[in-house]
Amino acid sequence: MFCDIVAGIVPAHVVFSDDVAIGFLDARPVFKGHVLVAPKEHYVTLADLPGDLVGPLFTRVQRVSAAMPPALGAQGSFVGENNTVSQSVPHLHVHVVPRTKGDGLRGFFWPRGWYADDAEAADYARRIAKALVLP
Ligand SMILES: [Zn+2]
């Protein structure tokens, strides 16, 4: 579906469009001004994105984030990206949501849990570290 937005087949409120990515308003915003930044080429998840596109994509995410305070009077922003789970459209997209203190956004961060103990937390850390591929 986002490929259709890139192709201009499906209309969107486009914030920017260049050789790397397109930024457009989420049709169902968390807050008005909620932008989705998606690579022009079709990749489903962040893991699928070629390494040499990570910097260019996130530079644009950074620029969108930086634009929110002056553009919208927001105090800051939330930047997030879902992979597969809770990913409503299978084309990589980064959410940039304008934030203002007291805006009531808490749902993104719940429910929170606890580790059973330090050993369990250390085990999770070890498993992630083992799977991590650093540049
Ligand atoms: Zn696509």
Short description:
30% of the residues lie in helices and 19% in strands. With 135 residues, it is an alpha+beta fold.
Molecular structure report:
With 135 residues, this protein is of the alpha+beta class. Helix content is 30%, strand content 19%. It contains three helices and five strands, in the order H-E-E-E-H-E-E-H. The protein has a five-stranded antiparallel β-sheet with strand order 1-2-3-5-4, with helices on one face. A hairpin with a 3-residue loop joins strand 1 and strand 2. The longest helix is centred in the middle third of the chain and has 22 residues. The chain starts with a helix and ends with a helix. The site of zinc ion has 4 residues, from helix 1.
Uncertain segments of ≥5 residues (pLDDT<50)? none
Estimate the mean pLDDT confidence.
Answer: 89
Strand content: 15-25%
The H/E string reads HEEEHEEH
Instruction: Please give the number of β-strands.
Output: 5
Structural class, judged by helices and strands? alpha+beta
Q: How do the strands line up in the largest sheet?
A: 1-2-3-5-4
Tally of helical runs: 3
The share of residues in helices is 25-40%
Give the cofactors and ligands: zinc ion
Sheet having the most strands: 5 strands, antiparallel
The gyration radius over C-alpha positions equals: 17 Å
What's the topology here?
Layout: H1 2-6, E1 14-17, E2 21-25, E3 35-39, H2 51-72, E4 76-80, E5 94-99, H3 118-131
Antiparallel strand pairs: 1-2, 2-3, 3-5, 4-5
The structure holds zinc ion.
